[in-house]
Amino acid sequence: MSLLIRGCAxxxxxxxxxxxxxxxxxxxxxxPPDDLALRQAAPEQQQLLQVxxxxxxxxxxxxxNQQPIPVTSPLLIRLKGKPLNKGATIxxxxxxxxxxxxxLKKPLFDDKSKTLTLFYPLAQYRVVMDLLRNDTVYCQFLSxxxxxxxxxxxxxxxxxx
Length: 161
What we know:
Layout: H1 2-21, E1 45-58, E2 61-62, E3 71-72, E4 75-83, E5 92-98, E6 108-110, E7 115-121, H2 125-134, E8 137-143, E9 149-155
Parallel strand pairs: 5-7
Antiparallel strand pairs: 1-4, 1-8, 2-3, 4-5, 6-7, 8-9
């Protein structure tokens, strides 16, 4: 009887190995459906940060050596926190808001500075601020071998009232 149990246990262990080799990313439940099958393989890189503090920066920039003189006023939120997944090196997130472009830049993770830069339309500023004021916020960045990149800000699961 003991030999039969050991054999079944060994068989179950062997069957579970392919699943353990390619674990789903942490916080995968917050990803949207993969309708285009862009996330078939495990991500090459994942950075997951729990936000512990933030600051809002509203800049004013004028380059006086150009004609006409461009005046810009960038708006960004700097997020800091603690990395949550094994191998994560992320230390901060810069969330830039753009009210002028017709398309947004892709998320960028800089290994050297350990900074993730996200780009959102200006219309999302209030939503992001509401999240930061009212909930625990996480930021995740996933990059895949096929070139697909996913980045987001999300809360944990919250019970409805």
